[in-house]
Amino acid sequence: MQVIRGEEPSSGRSFTGAARRSQIIAATIETIAELGYSQASFARIAERAGLSSTRLISYHFAGKDELMGAAVAEVYGHIGQFMAERMAGATCARDALRTYITALAGYIADNRPRMRAMMEIFLNFRGEDGASDSYDAGDDNDAIGHVQRILRDGQRSGEFRDFDTFVMAATVQRSLDGLPFLLETRPDLDLAACAEELVTLFDLATRSGP
Q1: By three-state DSSP, how is residue 157 classified?
Q2: What residue ranges define each of the domains in the chain, with the CATH number in brackets?
Q3: How far is 128 from 65, CA to CA, in rounded Å?
Q4: What does the pLDDT read at residue 92?
Q5: What pLDDT score does 9 carry?
Q6: Which segments in the chain show pLDDT lower than 50?
Q7: Helix pair 93-110, 165-177: axis angle to 10 deg
Q8: Are 105 and 176 in contact (CB under 8 A)?
């Protein structure tokens, strides 16, 4: 999904404009998470953001396509920062794989409104041409590629056995991508316990020795 950043009319208003954009994006995510995508009209988003008119949304965003793109980019950015901080302390490939699984499951558990909004956008948003513009193959490939690099490092170090790193990385990522959907049918699901099961599963599937 391409996120188009509009320019502010003057540099003197850039800080205020950026703050207003962030306010609108946050209200968009909260509105979708609470009411669902179909009910997240500009009027309801403006009301949640405390704006006097929907024209203030239109001033900062060219339309709903751009606003949805900005909302997805905001959540992706938040996830990326969260994961980078936690992955920084990994000491080896096995530790990195465990950390990736537990950290992402933990993020999903602690940020359910954000994840619900993302799920609503992915399932319901269609661009002006009718295509599902919320799905970005580049973002998906980046996530799988990150896991694949961990697996390759483990194979080089002898921690992991020989296997197809793409297939394994995609399986790891899809197991985690499915957690927000499971929460919709099992809201009491213990994601920490799920993460530990996934860690055990993929540790057994990847490690080179007994």
Answers
A1: helix
A2: 11-206 (1.10.357.10)
A3: 7
A4: 96
A5: 40
A6: 1-13, 134-135
A7: 20
A8: yes
